[in-house]
Amino acid sequence: MSYSLRGRVESRLATLVPVVAAACVLTAVLHRWWPIEAAGLMLGLGVALDVQAYHRLLPYQPGWAALPLGLLELGILVVLMRAAGVAAPIWEAVALFAGGWTVAQALGHAGFPLLRLSYMEDGGELGRLGVASAVAAGALLAGAGATAYALRPPVVHLAAGVHQGPLVITRREVLVGDPGAIVRGGIVVHAKDVTIKNVAVVGGVNGITIDGYRGTMLDGVSVSGAKLDGIHVRLAGVVIKNCTVDMLGNPLGQGIDISYNMDMGMSMVEGCTIMGGMEGITTHSSMTQVMDNHVSRTTMRGISVTEMSMGMVMDNEVRAAHGIGIWCNDRSMCSIEHNTVVDTSGSGYGVLASFQSEADLRGNQLTANPVPFGAIVNSEVATTH
Amino acid sequence: MKVAVVGSGLAGFTAYQTLRRELAPEEIAVFGVEDDPAATFSRRATAIRQREMRSESDGHCSPVSFPGLSLRAAVRRRSPAPLAGALTDRFHPTVPEFLDHVERLRERSGWSRSLVRGRIERVHAVERGFELDGYGVFEHVLLAPGHPGLNVPEELRDDPRAVHSYEPHDYACTVTVVGAGLAAATEWLNALAAGAEVVSVRRREPLRRPLNVPRELLTRRGLAGFHRLPGHERAERLRTLLTPSYPPGRQWDEPLAHAEVEGRFRVEQSVNGSAQVICATGFLHGFRHDALLSNLVDAYGLETVGDWIVLDPDGTVPSLTRVGRTLALAGAPAQWAYPGADSIGGAKVVAHAFLRRVRACRTR
Q: Which residue of B58, B224, B352 is in closest CB contact with A118?
């Protein structure tokens, strides 16, 4: 078909109306914003490509071109989602796109020609339906944006100085610490969708406890002096970024412990520095990405992925662990890539897979460890350089 | 009755199918001399032994492009190949598939109830429409007179060896084919397959094009620029666009290449001593060859450029069309508005525009 520019844009917007509507429903059901964010990106990307590329490059577009163009748009969409920080599960996002693409094909080949006799000769223009579609797509996205704005959690500022804890957060909010804000005695998250930024926590049984709530984000927090775990996550979904956990002097504590949240989707620990403790970062029965962290001077293991966990351990630096640098244990499946593990002491391993676990190693630097890597008790290590 | 279609060939039939979206058979009069709208096409296709249509999946007479003939063929053949062919623009329905579809449409659309046997010679504009040779006044009239006749080069008119490609014929042992379009290419292959030695006589090298006009000119995208051209430039552009052509593809090239190697196919500049001369030279062209259109131009002083009556982009005759009445052309005479009008797809475009006029003026 030879689309006119207006025809391309109108057809695009009309085919995206059901996608945006589906994204709104998904957002309401999942209590996550990524479907609408992804649909908005799809719309923006599609219109931009129509105007800037397709109209000029494709004076005539044969039917088969829909497939490679769809794949191209999907690839760009994934990159844009990453760049924009849209936290979408990749396969769900791909499914949303594929559904939208299928609807677009059905409408383009059958629906629109049936609705508008002259659809083909008008180069894809839809007349009043096109205008209505543009308004509908815009209204849906604007409505979603307005809803998101209205539902923004309240922002609570924690003033500089020492605040006696434990601080219990019982509602959805963003807690932002002013420079010098310290909570003594720990923080307990007791609500979903809580964000804590730039707060220092000193002491407490656990530095920060999240037990049974989804959607917690810790960004730029620091924890020191906790008795058990620096950050303690149970049955909860979290994203932990740019944190500092100091467990020096606590040979039995754990820096970050994320456990039993397999049904909560993917959690993430990224850009954190953990010092001391028995284990730096540990996951049990969890799907967690552990990326770009610095773990040092632990008394037993630097990073452990255990108890039927599935995890990607990537671009981390583990130094001076006494025992094991990175441990994949107890029927876990681990992808261990581009990590640096050095100076492991004792008679331990740089990387160890044990008890029926599977570890894929790729591009790791394992230096000055008693044993670079190994597998014991019916486990497997596959290495790719 | 408010709407009339003059001409019961495929262009008129396509318009009728479109009009039936809004009107009952009793509200439409179709003037023509044959019950079967595909009769003329069928005779010509049979004459040149055409097996496949040049048009693609949406080259059918239904007003809506979906479902196309590829989907119907896929169901009938129980194979996805036609659908894959449609996606890659390689599907061409067979002539029987096309004719079968026409027949189905004819049966279920009430065509016979609308058909009025008669030939319209003159159209008279009156206050509330157009009077058609004593058949009454119609508010909206679409003229689809078809091609005015077969074109045989002057120098061959009295040559006893000459036959037009669209007339029934067999093949002699030596055949000269005059022309360079789809009919000529089909005749080259037919004559070669019949064992003849073939000479192609043509004024120019054949143009290879999938459809009879470039695809951009099938939609508003290409038409906008075409419609902006001043009259004489548009006429010149039309002459270029309507240069005879046939589709690219191995099915055409390979038999010719083999025959050339065997010395059974060659190109010459003039008709030689072949036993048979086939004139694949298409149709007479221009409104002056059609009595109805010629009378109309003379009676109302319609604007013309070269062989064409000047039309608005929707195929209507501007000086005779106004609020409440419409006179439009379809088929080859509508090429001024739509270069691809001489095709099923083109007939559909004009029909859609005509229906919009009818719909806009409906009073019931």
A: B352
Q: Are residues B256 and B298 in the same domain?
A: no
Contact B219 A120 (CB under 8 A): yes
Residue type, B61: C
Interface of B with A (CB under 8 A): 18, 21, 58, 63-67, 86-89, 215-216, 218-222, 224, 348-349, 352-353, 355-356
Q: Which residues of B92-113 are buried (b: 16+ CB within 10 A; e: fewer)?
A: bbebebbbbbbeebbeebebee
User: pTM (2 decimals)?
Assistant: 0.74
- Closest Cα partner for A239 from A63, A381, A34? A34
pLDDT at B362 over 80: no
Average pLDDT of the residues of chain A: 94
Q: In chain A, what residues touch B359 (CB-CB under 8 Å)?
A: none
Angle between helices A34-49 and A128-150 (to 10 degrees): 140
Handedness of CA B263, B264, B266, B271 (dihedral sign): positive
What's the pLDDT at A263? 87
pLDDT of residue B364: 45
pLDDT of res. B363: 56
* Per-residue pLDDT at A91 exceeds 60: yes
- CA of B227 to nearest chain A CA: how many angstroms apart? 14
Number of structural domains chain B divides into: 2
The residue type found at B348 is: K
Residues of chain A above pLDDT 70, percent = 100
Q: Among partner residues B58, B63, B215, which is closest to A2 by beta-carbon distance?
A: B215
Q: What is the pLDDT of residue A208?
A: 97
The whole-angstrom separation of Cα B28 and Cα B336 is 26
Answer with the one of B225, B257, B279 that is the final residue of a domain: B279
Residue B220 lies in a domain: no
Residues of B in contact with A62 (CB under 8 A): 87-89
Residues B130, B8, single domain; the answer is yes
Average pLDDT over residues A117-142: 91
A97-109 average pLDDT score: 94
pLDDT tens-digit readout, B82-120: 999 999 999 999 999 999 999 999 999 999 999 999 999
Chain B positions in Cβ-Cβ contact with residue A4 (cut-off 8 Å): 219-221, 224
Q: Where are the domains of chain A?
A: 5-150, 155-384
B117 and B24 both lie in a single domain: yes
> Is there a contact between B196 and A100 (Cβ–Cβ < 8 Å)?
no
Domain boundary among B279, B306, B323: B279
Query: Residue B2 — pLDDT band, cuts 50, 70, 90?
Result: confident
Q: What is the ipTM of this complex?
A: 0.86
pLDDT at B79 over 50: yes
Average per-residue pLDDT for chain B: 93
pLDDT of residue A330: 96
Which residue(s) pair with B138 in the sheet? B130
Chain A hits for B348, CB-CB cut-off 8 Å, are 121
Q: Write out chain A residues lying below 8 Å of B314, CB-based.
A: none
* Per-residue pLDDT tens over the stretch A61-76: 999 999 999 999 999 9
Query: Looking at the partner chain, which of B58, B86, B216 has a beta carbon nearest the beta carbon of A120?
Result: B58
CA distance B298 to chain A (A): 32
Q: What is the CATH number of the domain that holds B142?
A: 3.50.50.60
Q: Do A122 and B58 touch (CB under 8 A)?
A: no
Residue A98 to chain B, least CA–CA distance (Å): 19
Domain A155-384, CATH homologous superfamily name and number:
Single-stranded right-handed beta-helix, Pectin lyase-like (2.160.20.10)
Give me the residue from A62, A113, A123 closest to B220, CB to CB: A123
* Residues B180 and B105 both lie in one domain: no
Tell me if A229 sits within 8 A of A208, measured CB to CB: no
- A122, two tokens: 């008008």
Give yes or no: residues B130 and B7 share one domain.
yes
What DSSP assignment string belongs to B77-129? HT-SHHHHHHHTT----BHHHHHHHHHHHHHHHTHHHHEEE-----EEEETTE
Q: How far is A2 from chain B (nearest CA, A)?
A: 6
CB contact under 8 A, B218 and A121: yes
